[in-house]
Amino acid sequence: MGPVRVLFEGRYRKFVRDLPQTVFYCPRCKGRGCNHCEGFGKLTKDSVQELIARVAMPRFKARRNKFHGAGREDMDVRMLGSGRLFVFEMQKAKRPDVDLEELAAEINRRADHRIEVFDLKLCDRKRVVEVKESHCAKEYQARVRMDGVVDAAEIDARLQALQAGPRLDLVQQTPQRVAHRRADKERHRWLQLRHWQRDGKDWLVNLLSQHGTYIKEAISGDGGRTRPSLSELLGVPCQCVELDVWNILPAASEDA
Ligand SMILES: [Zn+2]
Q: Which of 208, 206, 211, 193 is nearest to 243 (CA)?
């Protein structure tokens, strides 16, 4: 039998804030190598994709790979909870029968606590579309920093009112930071404040949100491009200084 296409699916958790999901090609040279990327063609040494590929490719004796995630988090956002679903696709694998449990163990050992993969199993190409199009609500934890001197008791009271109130319907214009690569359009998304706690001068805020919500902008307001925002509702300019995907809920939990 000649080389074949092999796909496996699984879930990953990501415990660091400097790791993109897929190969981060240099935007100036598109991977060819230039001064901006010091000739490497990419802007980070690693990605979730490469930490998997480095172990999987030699075992499967495969040539090329693609990584299909069920959505993606920003590079500086940790992916916790029950992890994110993905499909890892290899073209021209010369040795398709690999022990996936051993593979996961070795990926995790070499990743050295940066990522963890689990529940690996072989799948077919239909899963790529299913995984990429699965829309799930997510819980986030955001470290929110407020501008200037704030009355902490007053902030707590406003957060309490938000938590007790109905979920928020947001209108989000494509954020400035991604406007160069995404169509500029308006999205309607919902958000619900779950709970929060003070942590030094910050607030750790847990939010439940509809798939595709831009959380950093839902907090800052993005110069009025997301309305309402936490900044607007609290009456204080807020920034999201750290963000974790706390959990991805099962697909059935998503409202239309
Ligand atoms: Zn470059």
A: 206
pLDDT category, 47, cuts 50, 70, 90?
Answer: very high
Spatial contact of 72 and 16, defined as CB atoms under 8 Å apart: no
Same fold, 4-132 and 138-253: yes
- Looking at domain 4-132, its CATH class is alpha beta
What are the residues facing 8 on neighbouring strands?
88, 122
Closest CA to 42 of 55, 56, 28: 28
For 207-227, what is each residue's pLDDT tens digit? 999 999 999 999 999 999 999
Calculate the average pLDDT of the chain. 94
The domain segmentation of the chain, as residue ranges, is: 4-132, 138-253
CATH number, span 138-253: 3.30.70.3190
- Report the Cα 125 to chain-centroid distance in Å: 23
Q: How far is the CA of 191 from the centre of ligand 1 (A)?
A: 38
Average pLDDT rounded to a whole number, residues 118-139: 95
Residues with catalytic roles: 74
Distance, CA 96 to ligand 1 centroid (Å)? 34
Q: Please tell me the total number of residues recorded for the chain in this structure.
A: 256
Q: Which residues pair with 86 in a beta bridge?
A: 10, 69
Instruction: Categorize the per-residue pLDDT at 181 as very low, low, confident or very high, splitting at 50, 70 and 90.
Output: confident
Spatial distance between the Cα atoms of 156 and 198, rounded to a whole number of angstroms = 9
Distance of CA 44 from the midpoint of ligand 1 (Å):
11
